């Protein structure tokens, strides 16, 4: 496994923190789904906070799990927050709406130069 999921709770037991780290490739989505399910059952109408500070890669399967978790939180009356994402992981989560967009309100998209345009540069 190239990823880690650590769980912590506040003293009142109302907030469950999932500290994620490493490469969340397509094989990690099952463990992430299980960790979210356990976090929601522990939080009991509280909050689930996912700290993405140490995440280097995030597969589309894991993004789907995070979006499903958001839907579960809305339906179950839980708080749900994705924090500390950085780099391309942040950009991906901004595009899905799981992280707030930056103040400049622009999305980054690489420019792929092709054909005559690439030759001119």
UniProtKB/TrEMBL annotation:
InterPro entries: MlaB-like_STAS, STAS_dom, STAS_dom_sf. It comes from the Bacteria. Residues 5-121 form the STAS domain. Pfam families: STAS_2 (PF13466). This is Anti-anti-sigma factor.
